[in-house]
Amino acid sequence: MTAALVGLSHSPLIGKNDPPAHVLEACEGAVATARTFVEDFDPELVVLYAPDHYNGFFYGGMPPFCLATGAISVGDFGSTPGPLSVDTEAARHLAKGTLDRGIDLTVSAQMTVDHGMVQPLEQLFGGITDVPVVPVFVNGVATPLGPVSRIRALGEALGSAAAELDRRVLFIGSGGLSHDPPVPVLEGAPPPVAKALIEGLSPTPDQRAKGESRVVAAGRAFAADELPSMKALNPEWDNLVLDTLTSGDLSAVDDWTVEWMAEEGGGSAHEVRSWVAAFASLSTFGGFDVSHRFYRAVPEWIAGYAVVTATSTT
Length: 314
Description:
- By secondary structure, the protein is of the alpha/beta class.
- The chain has an eight-stranded mixed beta sheet with strand order 6-3-8-2-9-1-11-10, with helices on both faces. Strands 5-4-7 form a three-stranded mixed beta sheet.
- The model has no long low-confidence stretch (mean pLDDT 94).
- The protein is built from nine helices and eleven strands.
- The N and C termini lie close together (8 Å).
- The protein is 39% helix and 19% strand.
């Protein structure tokens, strides 16, 4: 029995609004290193923590986190559509084990996921059906948001349940780091936008294409420093987050407030909650060694972009 981890930023702008060649080459090299790490580890199960961007979860019923016993990708921003290879038996075990440990976990038999879940599977495994996976949604966008300590507790409970499976388990944290893209919020939203955010109205193909084009345009404007309304990337905060997560002592995250995270990292910096959950899960297997850590601020992707790999020492 052993466990490993990959922390991986995602961005819908990858391949659509890329940084200069030397930056892109460095980022692609970091992903290639992570892919080799995963191939060498040869996981028997992947537990994937990731946020959603109002494609699967809406204000009609927004949980702080949710585990899937079945999942299907919506295929946004050119990501692969269709069902994921969810290991339903393992997912049910993890759900029961997490609930038994006192975490009020929501469970979905048919979770709709987007690029936040799909991109790491594509980049690390080549597709969404190449490995048994248990997707776990961690809200990082829709306010109000609960304390980070509860995300750490979620990761620890689920990690302890995963250890009972006696399988090689890879935990993936997808998202972040500093990150302030043009994501709609419910408070103050015009009535049509509010209705969509509450009811989860499926956009037409034309509406989706127009929305995605606006995000690409925002990325280009942000990289050109033409969007002062969006918070600048914060490499200092990003590296503080990475230092904390890789230190082996996650207790410091309990002091991270919702307001502080947004002020330092931007409105969507809460996607690092997925990383917190993944590292908390890995921590339940004992100590861990970090084998690779990469970071670049990539304004073209509106993201502090990071890749981290680690393996349990027991």
